[in-house]
Amino acid sequence: MQNLFANLPNSLPAELTTVLAESAHIRIERIVSTGNSSPAGYWYDQDEHEWVVLLTGEASLRFEEGETLIMKPGDAVLIPAHRRHRVDSTALDQPTVWLAVFYSS
């Protein structure tokens, strides 16, 4: 058994990603951020679709075409493969915990 909120760090130099389960077609990750963001000018451009839900904290997720989502606990979004996006910010006062499901069609 795992608890997604166990052993959350208070400070990290970079996001902490833990693979919870995976197969040839799907990968489920817990991602923990503590005020982290994507490097300046960097855009994620993934071969897989990503469904992500924010469990704790807060985050600003921006898409290359200009849309910005301010995510709070319980907010979820499906990011199609190759839709370029970045994390502009995450909460500074508490860990931000994401659950991300990556899959191919």
What does this 3D model show about the protein?
This protein is mainly β. It is built from no helices and eight strands. It has strands at 16-22, 26-33, 49-56, 59-63, 68-71, 76-79, 85-90, 96-103. The strands form two sheets. Strands 1-2-8-3-6 form a five-stranded antiparallel sheet, with no helix packed on it. A three-stranded antiparallel sheet has the order 5-4-7, with no helix packed on it. Strand 4 (59-63) and strand 5 form a beta hairpin. The radius of gyration is 13 Å and the shape is globular. The mean pLDDT is 95. InterPro entries: Cupin_2, RmlC-like_jellyroll, RmlC_Cupin_sf. Pfam families: Cupin_2. Residues 45-102 form the Cupin type-2 domain. This is Cupin domain-containing protein.
| Rg result | 13 Å
User: What overall form do the CA principal axes indicate?
Assistant: globular
Biggest sheet, open or closed, and with what strands and sense? 5 strands, antiparallel
User: Regions with pLDDT < 50 over 5+ consecutive residues?
Assistant: none
Tally of contiguous helical segments:
0
What amount of the residues lies in strands?
Answer: over 45%
Compute the number of strand runs: 8
Q: Distance N terminus to C terminus? A: 29 Å
> Helical content, roughly?
under 10%
Strand order of the largest sheet: 1-2-8-3-6
Mean pLDDT: 95
Structural class: mainly beta
Order of helices and strands: EEEEEEEE
Give short descriptive properties of this protein.
105 residues, mainly beta, five-stranded antiparallel β-sheet, three-stranded antiparallel β-sheet
